[in-house]
Design a protein that fits this description.
With 251 residues, this protein is an alpha/beta fold. It has a single domain, classed as Rossmann fold (3-Layer(aba) Sandwich). The protein is built from seven helices and eleven strands. Strand 2, helix 2 and strand 3 form a beta-alpha-beta unit. The longest helix has 18 residues. The chain is globular. The structure holds 2-amino-2-deoxy-6-O-phosphono-alpha-D-glucopyranose. 2-amino-2-deoxy-6-O-phosphono-alpha-D-glucopyranose binds next to helix 5.
Length: 251
C-alpha cells in the first residue's frame, strides 16, 4: 500500500482528485466506484474545478456507487443518489445514464442486489474505487461483522453509524436503519482502491486499517491485502500511525 500524508483536508482532497484525474486521463471510459459522506466532498469539488477549466472530460466515464439507504428514493435529499447528483454529476459532463447507485426503493431487495452485482460485472469491474471510512472501520456500509460479506447485500446499520450519520438529517429518528451496499469481495476486486480519511475521529480506524489484524470486525483492514491500495489521509487521521517524518510511505 502507498500512504500519502496530507497537511489538511484541502491538501487531501487535491491529492485524491489528482489520483482520480490520472485514472480518467489514462482511461477515458473507465469505471469509477464512488463514495458518499463528508470525506469525498472536497475531492469532488476539485474534480469539478478541473473539469470547468477544461482539464477533465467525463463524457465516457461510468460510475457505480458503493451504497444507498433502504427506503429513500433518488429524489429524497438525504439519498446518496441525490448527494451524487448535487456534489458531482450535475456539475460535469457525465452522462447521467452512465451513473449507477443501488435503488433503495426497489420492491425486492434481493433482486436489486443481484441486479447491481450483474451490472458491475457487465461493466467489466471497477477500475478505481474511492472509499471513505466509518469511525468503526466500515467501508461502504459493510459494518463490523463475524465474516466478510461478499457481494451487494442489505445491512442493518449499527447504532454508531446511525448516530454518526444523523448530523445530516433533521432528526436522528429519520436516519434509515437499513442500507444496501456493495460487498467486500466486490470492493476488493476493484483494480485500484483509493481510501481517504480526514480528522481525528478517524485516527483509530486508520491505525487499525493499516497496522491491525485483518478481521471482519474492522472491515477496512482487509484492504491491507489489496495489491493496489492508496491511502490519502490528513495529519489528524494519521495521528495514531507512526510514519516517521515521511509524507509518502510504501508499506
Ligand atoms: C457512511 C458511508 C460511507 C462513508 C462513511 C463515513 O456510512 N456509507 O461510505 O465512508 O459514512 O462518512 P464521512 O466521510 O462523512 O465521515
Amino acid at each position: 500500500m502507498r500512504i500519502y500524508k496530507a497537511k489538511d483536508y484541502q491538501a487531501l482532497s487535491r491529492k485524491a482528485a489528482n489520483i482520480i484525474s490520472a485514472q480518467i486521463i489514462m482511461k477515458p471510459n473507465c469505471v469509477l466506484g464512488l463514495a458518499t459522506g463528508s470525506s469525498p466532498i472536497g475531492t469532488y469539488k476539485q474534480l469539478i474545478e478541473w473539469y470547468q477549466k477544461g482539464d477533465l472530460d467525463f463524457h465516457e466515464v461510468k460510475t457505480v456507487n458503493l451504497d444507498e439507504y433502504v427506503g429513500l428514493s433518488g429524489d429524497n435529499e438525504q439519498s446518496y443518489r441525490h448527494f451524487m447528483n448535487e456534489n458531482l454529476f450535475n456539475h460535469v459532463n457525465i452522462e447521467l445514464q452512465n451513473t449507477n447507485v443501488p435503488d433503495g426503493r426497489a420492491e425486492d431487495m434481493n433482486t436489486e442486489c443481484q441486479r447491481y452485482n450483474n451490472l458491475i460485472r457487465s461493466l467489466g469491474g471497477i477500475d478505481l474505487q474511492l472509499l471513505g471510512i466509518g469511525r468503526n472501520g466500515h467501508i461502504g456500509f459493510n459494518e463490523p461483522e463475524e465474516a466478510f460479506e461478499q457481494e451487494t447485500h442489505m445491512v442493518n446499520l449499527t447504532e454508531s453509524t446511525i448516530e454518526a450519520n444523523s448530523r445530516l438529517f433533521n432528526d436522528p429518528s429519520e436516519v434509515p436503519r437499513h442500507a444496501v451496499t456493495m460487498g467486500i469481495k466486490t470492493i476488493m476486486q476493484a483494480r485500484q482502491i483509493l481510501l481517504i480519511a480526514s480528522g481525528e475521529d478517524k485516527a483509530d480506524a486508520i491505525q487499525k486499517t493499516i497496522f491491525g489484524a485483518v478481521t471482519p470486525r474492522v472491515p477496512a483492514s482487509i484492504l491491507q491485502i489489496h495489491n493496489s491500495l492508496t491511502i490519502v489521509a490528513d495529519e489528524a487521521a494519521l495521528s495514531k500511525c507512526d510514519l516517521g517524518n515521511k509524507d509518502m510511505l510504501v508499506l
